[in-house]
């Protein structure tokens, strides 16, 4: 039981909040009794998983930013007042931050996956709710939903020995088997794994039913896994009798049940499945021919023995008069026949050099083949009127779980499967005559949009929900191609009432949950939205859940501490938990980007400084630097790089998308100033703007090794492409040198080059010093004149005097191989500071000394772009968000610059 006094003390003391272990904080949250405490709890939970690996000073940075994202400047200041022993107060603090992830229904985020999370399911272990989440790389993690602690990391997936690739994980499901919580994992081209959620260990894998037989009076079952290992089980005891890898065929020879194995680089073998011993001999072929136009024969000869001739159609040896009558004079040689496999004087298989599996002789396997398959297999078996699934257990026993008579859902919302005891209960086991191929649907009770019949098919099949009772009728939900969700009568199969309408693309996952006296449905669509519906009224409840920064692939529901919650899994490698008691989502929603912000630029609009952001969601948004409000409608366009300029006295944004076409858009109306211009670069990798003879120009860096200069009044090229780089040009910035506009570029060839934009010629020799790609360029005006700063994948930041064309400083970063964003600032006391991002961190360097200028700043999501705003402030793009940071003590920033994707001139 949580002591309310502990919760109040924690949430009313910012220093205590920062220094208390995150696991303890999370354990106490959830029972706040006033609005201020609830606001503090919401801020903490917004990045709860991040705090686990942070020290208190970093938690303070993240919490201040989260408060800004929630629009609570007062709370951000309160958190910033927290004293951290041995550390100064915050040097950088958020002025504001966008809040697309500030949905009031959001409870917690689970991180740790190294790939998109595509599958999620819930269970109850030891009386505590857990979530099981799987990512495309095959990793499966289990978290406690009450504490947020990681319980297990399941080792799943099989690595291909040639490609070293792990089979993609397609889905996870959970169930109760005899009151034990288990998880099922489905991989592309792999077995369905079974995991004990209490221990985190493998409990076995599901196997296909092949046949049941009674050789020598012993009732046995034959099963086969995805790796073609055939297992023989004693149905009286459930114990494994034997196992045979690489089985290609099964049949009966001389009354014995046998299997053919053909392992790589091993001879073909025939095994007695009950006696567990080889019963064949291998014969080496010395010659093989086709006689009489159609009769294949082979000659074998072992050392010291007389050669023998075999008929490869009947499998019998040819000898005596029959052999003498064969006409060999016109025989046609058969190539590739290397060996024969014989049982009791009869050839049953032929080994061919050009194929992995042997050719069988005779039809002795016919009773065990099905529709062209070498071995007939069934995903399910039957016991009387019950359909069962079979598990080859880690305990070396065969387990049969009833899919028919078990209840569809237990009290806690997890499907229950009853096991069939070994002994008399299993003796009647038989292959399922129906040949069903929907085993996963039977286990999970629902179908996701990413799987069908156990195979990866993108997002093709129709997603369905688990059956539920609605208004005293059994119904289920089914996704339609147009994005609607139909409520189906589970008995008749006909639509029941109005569909759920709102998604603009197909729904790929859905679930239902009881909330209060009603029933809610949750749906995930390819339109990148997660929606909540009241199934009684068929109306959407509030706005879509917002927070994921990419496609959401799966969801599940459960109950945590008495309240219904939803779990969602997405491309952003996270699992998020949502409170469904706030289904309407009444609270603050700030619209923003739904995909990562890739580029930033600044300008003046109606006399006020604004920052422009371009996101992977194909929108461009304009924000007031002072207030954080969006001041124009979002522009619908895809921009890989971006810069700003003034054309005819009006601010414009210049963009280039994946097709390398240049667009000049009015910042307010979004209209094209003039027709789009093909750049012919292949791809535009960086962009800057400048003024040439009083006219605005854009300078572009291309993957074609050239630099372009464009008149923004007309959209036409001012000169032929500038050539000199020997590889891709990845960065560009502009400045003024001796009264003439110049551009500074860097590229894959490790060089930095200076270009006179008036003449279109390179100035002097290239600047060299980097030992790897140049990823970003910035310019600034020092006391000694114009300067450029470059960042390289070699982990080096170099400072160049453009008047002397000499390197005047450098700094070695800890990280190499990174291509983070970069900006340059100058503080009130004249200190030149470089802001450089690496993953989630922004580092500040004093370029004069090469030392850190201030404490590194940590953000909850990766940083993709940096620039400095007019009149001071550093603009940071992290994930789908944008924030303006300001120095808390040193004063305003006077010098601005851009990021690795788009650079512009810095003016004091």
Provide the fold topology.
Blueprint: H1 4-11, H2 14-19, H3 22-28, H4 35-46, H5 48-51, H6 56-69, H7 73-80, E1 92-97, E2 106-110, E3 117-125, E4 128-135, E5 140-144, E6 150-154, E7 169-177, E8 180-187, E9 192-196, E10 201-213, E11 220-224, E12 230-234, E13 240-244, E14 247-253, E15 256-261, E16 269-272, E17 277-278, E18 281-291, E19 295-300, E20 308-311, E21 317-318, H8 320-324, E22 332-333, E23 337-343, E24 346-352, E25 359-360, E26 381-383, E27 386-393, E28 398-402, E29 416-420, E30 430-431, H9 439-444, E31 451-452, E32 455-456, E33 468-470, E34 473-479, E35 485-489, E36 507-515, E37 518-525, E38 530-534, E39 539-540, E40 552-560, E41 563-570, E42 575-579, E43 597-605, E44 608-615, E45 619-624, E46 635-636, E47 641-647, E48 650-656, E49 661-666, E50 677-678, E51 684-692, E52 695-702, E53 706-711, E54 722-723, E55 729-737, E56 740-747, E57 752-756, E58 761-767, E59 774-782, E60 785-792, E61 796-801, E62 806-812, E63 822-826, E64 832-838, E65 841-846, E66 851-852, E67 857-858, E68 863-868, E69 874-878, E70 881-887
Parallel strand pairs: 7-29
Antiparallel strand pairs: 1-70, 2-42, 3-4, 4-5, 5-6, 7-8, 8-9, 9-10, 10-11, 10-27, 11-12, 12-13, 14-15, 15-16, 16-17, 18-19, 18-22, 18-23, 19-20, 20-21, 23-24, 24-25, 26-27, 26-30, 27-28, 28-29, 31-32, 33-34, 34-35, 36-37, 37-38, 38-39, 40-41, 41-42, 43-44, 44-45, 45-46, 47-48, 48-49, 49-50, ...
Helix pairs in contact: 6-7
């Amino acid at each position: 039981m949580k002591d309310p006094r502990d919760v109040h003390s924690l949430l009313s003391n910012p220093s205590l909040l920062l220094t208390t272990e995150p696991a303890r904080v999370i354990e106490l949250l959830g029972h706040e009794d006033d609005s201020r405490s609830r606001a503090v709890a919401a801020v903490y939970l917004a990045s709860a998983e991040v705090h686990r690996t942070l020290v208190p000073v970093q938690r303070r940075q993240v919490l201040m930013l989260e408060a800004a994202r929630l629009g609570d400047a007062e709370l951000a200041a309160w958190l910033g007042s927290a004293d951290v022993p041995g550390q100064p107060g915050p040097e950088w603090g958020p002025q504001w931050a966008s809040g697309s992830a500030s949905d009031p229904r959001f409870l917690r985020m689970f991180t740790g996956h190294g790939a998109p999370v595509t599958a999620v399911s819930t269970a109850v272990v030891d009386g505590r709710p857990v979530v099981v989440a799987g990512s495309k790389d095959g990793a499966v993690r289990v978290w406690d939903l009450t504490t947020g602690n990681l319980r297990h990391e399941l080792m799943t997936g099989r690595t291909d020995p040639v490609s070293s690739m792990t089979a993609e994980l397609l889905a996870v499901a959970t169930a109760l088997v005899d009151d034990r919580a288990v998880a099922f994992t489905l991989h592309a081209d792999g077995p369905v794994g079974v995991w004990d959620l209490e221990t985190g260990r493998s409990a076995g894998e599901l196997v296909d039913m092949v046949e049941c037989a009674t050789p020598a009076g012993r009732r046995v079952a034959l099963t086969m896994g995805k790796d073609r290992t055939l297992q023989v089980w004693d149905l009286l005891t459930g114990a494994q009798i034997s196992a045979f890898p690489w089985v290609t065929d099964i049949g009966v020879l001389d009354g014995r049940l046998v299997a053919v194995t053909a392992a790589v680089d091993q001879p073909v073998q025939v095994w007695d499945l009950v006696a567990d011993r080889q019963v064949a001999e291998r014969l080496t072929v010395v010659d093989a021919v086709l006689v009489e136009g159609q009769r294949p024969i082979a000659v074998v000869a072992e050392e010291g023995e007389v050669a023998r001739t075999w008929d490869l159609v009947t499998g019998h040896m040819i000898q005596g008069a029959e052999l003498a009558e064969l006409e060999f004079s016109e025989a046609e040689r058969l190539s590739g026949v290397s060996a024969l496999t014989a049982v009791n004087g009869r050839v049953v298989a032929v080994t061919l050099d050009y194929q992995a599996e042997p050719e069988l002789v005779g039809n002795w396997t016919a009773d065990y083949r099905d529709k062209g398959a070498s071995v007939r297999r069934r995903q399910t078996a039957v016991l009387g009127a019950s359909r069962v699934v079979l598990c080859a257990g880690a305990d070396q026993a065969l387990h049969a779980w009833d899919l028919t008579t078990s209840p569809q859902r237990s009290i806690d919302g997890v499907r229950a499967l009853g096991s069939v005891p070994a002994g008399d209960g299993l003796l009647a086991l038989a292959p399922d005559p129906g040949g069903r191929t929907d085993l996963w649907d039977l286990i999970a009770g629902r179908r996701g949009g990413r799987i069908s019949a156990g195979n990866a098919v993108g997002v093709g099949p129709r997603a369905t929900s688990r059956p539920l009772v609605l208004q005293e009728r059994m119904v289920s939900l089914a996704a339609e191609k147009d994005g609607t969700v139909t409520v189906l009568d589970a008995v008749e199969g006909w639509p029941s009432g109005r569909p759920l309408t709102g998604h603009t693309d197909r729904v790929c996952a859905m679930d239902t949950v009881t909330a209060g006296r009603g029933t809610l449905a949750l749906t995930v669509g390819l339109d990148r939205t997660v929606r909540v519906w009241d199934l009684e009224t068929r109306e959407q409840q509030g706005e879509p859940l917002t927070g994921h920064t990419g496609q959401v692939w799966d969801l599940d529901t459960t109950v945590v501490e008495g309240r219904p919650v939803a779990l969602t899994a997405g491309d952003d490698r996270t699992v998020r938990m949502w409170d469904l008691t706030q289904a309407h989502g009444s609270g603050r929603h700030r619209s923003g980007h739904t995909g990562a912000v890739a580029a930033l630029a600044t300008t003046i609009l109606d006399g006020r400084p604004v920052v422009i952001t371009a996101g992977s969601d194909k929108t461009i948004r304009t924000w007031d630097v002072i207030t954080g409000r969006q001041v124009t409608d979002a522009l619908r366009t895809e921009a890989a790089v971006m810069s700003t300029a003034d054309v005819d006295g009006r601010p414009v944004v210049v963009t280039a998308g994946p097709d390398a076409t240049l667009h000049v858009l009015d910042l307010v109306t979004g209209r094209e100033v003039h027709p789009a211009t093909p750049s012919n670069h292949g791809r535009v990798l960086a962009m800057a703007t400048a003024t040439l003879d009083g006219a605005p120009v854009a300078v572009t860096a291309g993957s074609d090794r050239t630099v372009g200069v464009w008149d923004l009044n007309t959209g036409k090229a001012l000169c032929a492409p500038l050539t000199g780089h020997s590889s891709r040009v990845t960065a560009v910035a502009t400045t003024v040198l001796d009264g003439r506009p110049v551009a500074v570029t860097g590229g894959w060839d490790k060089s930095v080059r200076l270009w006179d934009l008036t003449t279109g010629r390179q100035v002097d020799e290239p600047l060299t010093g980097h030992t790897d790609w140049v990823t970003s360029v910035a310019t600034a005006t020092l006391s000694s004149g114009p300067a450029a700063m470059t960042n390289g994948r070699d982990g080096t930041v170099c400072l160049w005097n453009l008047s002397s064309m000499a390197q005047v400083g450098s700094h070695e970063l800890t990280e190499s191989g990174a291509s983070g964003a970069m900006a340059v600032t100058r503080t009130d006391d004249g200190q030149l500071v470089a802001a450089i991002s690496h993953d989630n961190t922004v580092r500040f360097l004093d370029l004069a000394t090469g030392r850190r200028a201030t404490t590194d700043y940590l953000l909850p999501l990766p940083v993709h772009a940096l620039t400095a705003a007019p009149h001071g402030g550093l603009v940071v793009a992290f994930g789908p968000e944008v924030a303006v940071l300001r120095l808390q003590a040193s004063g305003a920033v006077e010098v601005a610059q851009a990021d690795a994707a788009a650079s512009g001139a810095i003016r004091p």
